[in-house]
Write a structure and sequence with these properties.
The complex is a heterodimer.
Chain A: E1 5-7, H1 12-21, E2 25-28, H2 34-40, E3 47-50, E4 59-61, E5 67-70, H3 75-80, H4 82-87, H5 89-96, H6 101-106, H7 109-114, H8 165-171, E6 175-180, E7 183-188, E8 211-217, E9 226-231, E10 242-251, E11 254-263, E12 270-271, H9 273-279, H10 286-297, H11 309-326
Parallel strand pairs in A: 1-3, 2-3
Antiparallel strand pairs in A: 4-5, 5-8, 6-7, 6-8, 9-10, 10-11, 11-12
Chain B: H1 18-22, E1 38-44, E2 50-56, H2 58-61, E3 66-71, E4 93-94, E5 100-106, H3 109-118, E6 120-125, E7 144-145, E8 149-150, E9 153-155, H4 158-164, E10 167-175, E11 187-193, E12 196-201, H5 206-217, E13 224-227, H6 243-255, E14 259-262, E15 278-286, E16 292-304, H7 315-319, E17 325-335, H8 348-366, H9 370-376, H10 394-405, E18 417-419, E19 422-434, E20 441-446, E21 452-455, H11 465-477, E22 484-487, H12 504-525, E23 533-538, H13 540-544, E24 552-564, E25 570-580, H14 587-606, E26 612-613, E27 618-619, E28 638-642, H15 666-678, H16 689-692
Parallel strand pairs in B: 1-14, 12-13, 16-17, 21-22, 25-28
Antiparallel strand pairs in B: 1-5, 2-4, 2-6, 3-5, 7-8, 9-17, 10-15, 11-12, 11-14, 15-16, 18-19, 19-24, 20-21, 20-23, 24-25, 26-27
Classes of the chains: A alpha+beta, B alpha+beta.
Chain lengths: ~325, ~700
């Protein structure tokens, strides 16, 4: 692997300045994805700026409800946090559905959001991949693509985003706090990840050197009334074949409000706005849930090996919402 | 003499080296401290078929710390004709994608890896063929199948009997490529000193590695020493010398320093062998009560253009169940792929999946309970050889398993049991595996202080073999086990066969017991002299003189699964296996072998699949994140039992071998349970949710 320098910055400003000056540098969080990719030659940074020593490792309640999660809070700590478990159980459920105990002990919040696709072609330097090497082609488009996208893909890239946490966060309208040389700013999480379009090598809207310092979750009165369903090929320690994050607010039998997001279907965590729209203000039934899923999935364009994801996500949507409606506080 | 000691055999005992392993002090092949050590990195071919036209190593040699690059143009010469899969770095020919075509040697692992990335190789490529199909133009009949069985067999008149049968079943089952994936990759430390070669190798048998290295490098065997004290699994893939030990020895000679070379996880998918994909047509002709009159098993698998390996897929069908008219065939296709090799129960494992699935389909077709169907078709003599069985307790395993599993309460209707969103079903399958022995040598030595040392070049690949041999030795010496030391895993020890074919304990134990018995006999007449007393025995004559009998272990698998009606996810609630395996030397490690095999069968049924990309000609899911192997969470309750079985016609240890029978039939039991749960029969493994999703009964 490429020889690299390693640095632990004193503060966020130093970290951002370092990356700004070094076009081939990368931030290092838990390293659970980046270090693997460095060994494989997929990523070849010449400088690692280890941000895990920065004071970004706390979970705080916000004054008017909601939560702020530091960028370097470990996945295990976040999942076990009493406030998270009580007020935002969707996060705990999504986190604990992913990876393994050992990986969650290392992986950070921001690192989880910024992890790379597990598309097998991306991870193999012997195969064509526009994301890894723009212009080389997408071997997955006509290759082994069972696990890949059904929504929002382009001819250049059919990869999916692998995170479970991101699916839960995007359902909860999370906002990402970012520092770059211009200062601090905020990006709605739903705008952080891109669809591949003409530039699959660009996975987020962040410029080189921007550092995620935290994630804020706005207050949501029905956040506790949620579920995260994840389908995978074995019982544990596997990426999703498809997942659904849902939170539901019923007034009598009518959908007052709803949050719905899908995982493992697109290049980014997929907030199901169309489905939400189809649900809001209507009397809840299983048929309505199915129609809502159909409304969202109308845009799906399955690849040769993953047509099953459409009925799978539809079924999961119905199950998630039906379970929440059945257990709705009255 | 004092009162006889309490017997060690049959008692629970943790592995002798268990503490060393869990505390990290047990050394594996690339963990021994070595002065002046260097690191080798194997460079895989990026072409599928062709010739290397040019190699440019300039960029590699410019990497700080890189010492040398070996390739066909400069590597030390090997003797041809020893083993074509090991004739490495000798010719520019590329036989398959991923074949090792160069080795970079450097002062650090990282520099070697970076150097490997920078080797520039140009290829003249040719069109390749990497997909097994039943209509492949180069389908052929091998002369024999692994490890020497006849390719085809026929008794009676299958065609006529099948045509006349009241119930006819004609089905085809497919299994994909499976990859062995031991925890420890294939890995070697090699060093040359004064013309002698010393290697620490991760292998299932250091005696054959020693012999092969001696032949390849033109050395007297006694100048080669191979140590494999601890081995992190092999599942067959380390049953013969593989590329890393040859590459490390070549590299160490080239740079004249010790070389460590370990494969990456990705590099284990191909070059070290794998279980071939299979296409298996099974035909059963039976009467309305399910009594089989005609059985035919036609198996197709692949081999490489480097060397032939013919999986004995249909051999299981030759001896398992009765039926007067029978036929089995094997056909192979030579593809531009790595050479398939042994993987836990080669032949029996994929073959039993097909036959035990077909029996389940026959039971359904006849309306006969699948346990009862198997009982009805039990054989009294080996249908293949006509020989009597040394012991055959298949029916006892089925009955005992059915009792423990409450099988009698089962409603045979498929898709009839539902609990919420879960469809629930149960399945059964039989199992058998040959109980073989091979010749071995061992020494037993007595010291004046009353202790003993027993030496045999067995290999403990994590199975507990070392501990079992120690228990056998203690009883044969009739002394408390704490006075006995056992040494294994070194080619300087008395030569013995590989850990494979479930014959380790039978073969090594035979030699150990005979050596100990002879020593004990000698000590009846004499005291132990000051310099100690050693006896050495070979079992060659005794093994050769075995009575001709059909010797098999048997088993029965019972499985309950639940299938999510919304998602098609299959979860295994319970696996229960009952086995008749002769005597069990150590219940602790025996149970681990059996449940390990059963879980590996579950993994085969539901999870594992090498996904080939025909354009590249290799498997794209070559790591443990994308090639799924079952974990503990994939089976919620797992039980292995064994029947008390005393078979006097086996070997002095009276064991049948337990390393493989757990995986035989296990996948079929899972698949049969999925069918019972859903009414859907999936005949191409693995049974993934996408194959079930649109076929499940409505809620």
């Amino acid at each position: 692997m490429r020889a690299f320098r390693y640095h632990r910055p004193a503060d966020v400003t130093e970290a951002v300045a370092l990356l700004d000056a070094e076009p081939e540098a990368a931030y290092l969080g838990g390293g659970t994805n980046l270090v693997d990719l460095m060994k494989l030659g997929v990523q070849r940074p010449d400088l690692l700026v280890d941000v895990t020593g920065l004071p970004l490792d706390t979970v705080e309640a916000l004054p008017h409800g909601g939560l702020r999660i530091g960028a370097t809070v470990r996945n295990s700590d976040l999942a076990a946090d009493p406030m998270v478990r009580r007020d935002h159980p969707l996060l705990s459920r999504a986190l604990l559905a992913g990876a393994s105990g050992q990986l969650r002990n290392m992986a950070t919040t921001a690192g989880n959001l910024l992890q790379r696709t597990r598309c097998v072609y991306f991870q193999d330097t012997g195969k064509a991949c526009n994301k890894r090497e723009p212009g080389t082609g997408c071997a997955a488009r006509h290759g082994q693509n069972r696990d890949l996208a059904i929504l929002g893909w382009s001819e250049l890239c059919v990869a999916t985003h692998p995170s479970d946490l991101a699916v839960a966060l995007v359902a909860l309208d999370a906002v990402v706090e970012v520092h770059d040389p211009g200062g601090a700013r905020e990006i709605p999480l739903v705008d952080l990840h891109r669809t591949p379009g003409e530039h699959p090598e660009r996975e987020t809207s962040l410029p080189h050197g921007a550092l995620i310092t935290g994630v804020r979750i706005p207050p949501l009165p029905f956040a506790r009334h949620c579920t995260y369903l994840k389908v995978r090929d074995r019982a544990s320690f596997a990426f999703a074949v498809g997942s659904v994050a849902a939170a539901l607010d019923l007034a009598e039998d009518t959908v007052r409000d709803v949050r719905l997001a899908y995982g493992a279907v697109a290049h980014r965590p997929w907030r199901a706005y169309r489905a939400e729209e189809a649900l809001r203000g209507r009397p809840f039934t299983a048929e309505l849930a199915a129609q809502a899923a159909d409304a969202e999935l109308a845009a799906a364009r399955p690849l040769p090996h993953n047509g099953f994801k459409v009925p799978l996500i539809r079924n999961l949507t119905v199950r998630a919402l039906t379970a929440l409606a059945g257990a709705a506080p009255r | 003499m004092s009162a006889p000691p309490v017997g060690a055999v049959g008692r629970e005992h943790p592995r002798l080296e268990g503490r060393d392993k869990v505390t990290g002090t047990a050394r594996y092949a690339v963990e021994y401290p070595v002065d002046d050590v260097t690191y080798g990195w194997a460079v895989p071919a990026a072409a599928t078929r062709g010739r290397i036209s040019r190699i440019d190593t300039a960029q590699t040699l410019a990497v700080p710390g890189v010492l040398d690059v070996l390739h066909h143009g400069n590597a030390p010469r090997l003797a041809p004709g020893v083993d074509d899969t090991l004739f490495l770095l000798q010719e520019p020919t590329v036989h398959y994608r991923g074949e090792f075509v160069a080795v970079v040697v450097a002062e650090t692992l990282e520099a070697a890896r970076e150097g490997a990335r920078l080797v520039r190789i140009d290829y003249d490529t040719e069109a390749h063929s990497t997909v097994l199909s039943p209509h492949h133009p180069s389908l052929y009949r091998p002369d024999t199948v692994n490890p020497g069985y006849p390719t085809d067999t026929a008794e009676g008149d299958f065609d006529a009997a099948f045509a006349a049968a009241e119930v006819q079943l004609d089905t085809t089952y497919r299994t994909p490529a499976y990859h062995n994936n031991p925890m420890e990759p294939h890995a070697t430390t090699a060093r040359w000193r004064d013309g002698r070669l010393l290697v620490h190798d991760s292998t299932q048998g250091s005696t054959p590695v020693q012999a092969t290295l001696a032949q390849l490098f033109g050395l007297p065997p006694e100048t080669v020493r191979v140590i494999a004290e601890h081995v992190g699994g092999g599942f067959g893939s380390k049953g013969a010398p593989k590329a890393p030990v040859v590459l490390a020895a070549l590299a160490a000679r080239q740079v004249d320093r010790p070389v460590r070379l370990a494969l990456t996880r990705q590099q284990l998918f191909g070059p070290i062998g794998y279980r071939t994909p299979t296409i298996q047509r099974v035909r059963l002709g039976a009467d309305a009560d399910g009594r089989i009159a005609a059985v035919c098993h036609d198996a197709i698998s692949q081999t490489s253009k480097v060397q032939e390996f013919a999986e004995q897929t249909a051999v299981y069908t030759r001896s398992m169940y009765a039926g007067r008219h029978r036929r089995t065939t094997h056909r192979l296709v030579r593809l531009d792929v790595p050479t398939p090799f042994w993987m836990r129960a080669p032949g029996e494992c994929p073959g039993a999946y097909a036959l035990e699935s077909a029996l389940d389909e026959l039971a359904t077709a006849c309306g006969v309970d699948p346990v009862e169907l198997r009982v009805r078709n039990d054989a009294t003599v080996d249908p293949d050889s006509g020989q009597p069985f040394s012991s055959r307790n298949l029916v006892a395993c089925l009955r005992e398993g059915a009792r423990r599993f409450d099988w009698a309460d089962r409603d045979p209707t498929p898709g009839a049991r539902r609990l919420g969103r879960w469809l629930i079903g149960t399945g059964v399958a039989g199992a058998s595996y040959p109980a073989r022995s091979r010749a071995a040598t061992a020494t037993a030595a007595a010291a004046p202080d009353g202790t003993f040392e027993v030496r045999v070049n067995a290999t403990d690949i994590g199975t507990g073999a070392r501990t079992a041999l120690w228990q056998l030795a203690a009883d044969a010496l009739a002394v408390p086990a704490d006075r006995v030391a056992i040494r294994v895993g070194d080619s300087d020890l008395p030569p013995a066969p590989v850990a494979g074919g479930s014959m380790g304990t039978a073969s090594w134990g035979w030699a150990v017991i005979r050596a100990c018995e002879q020593l004990r006999q000698r000590l009846r007449d004499t005291a132990v002299p000051a310099e100690g007393l050693t006896v050495e025995v070979s079992t060659a004559d005794e093994v050769r003189a075995q009575r001709p009998l059909a010797r098999y272990a048997y088993g029965a698998h019972f499985v309950q699964v639940r299938v999510d009606a919304d998602t098609g996810e299959v979860r295994v609630d319970r696996m229960l296996g009952v086995f008749a395996v002769g005597r069990v030397v150590n219940p602790t490690t025996a149970r681990s072998q059996l449940i390990g095999g059963m879980t590996m069968g579950l993994s085969m049924a539901l999870h594992e699949e090498g996904l080939l990309d025909e354009r590249y000609g290799d498997w794209v899911n070559h790591d443990l994140a994308t090639y799924h192997i079952s974990g503990c969470a994939d089976v919620e309750r797992i039980e292995a039992y064994w029947l008390p079985e005393e078979d006097p016609d086996l070997n002095p240890a009276r064991v049948k071998g337990i390393g493989e029978i757990g995986i035989v039939g296990s996948a079929a039991a899972v698949a049969n349970a999925v069918h019972h749960a859903t009414g859907v029969r999936i005949r191409d493994l693995p049974i993934r949710l996408d194959k079930l999703l649109d076929r499940l009964p409505a809620g």
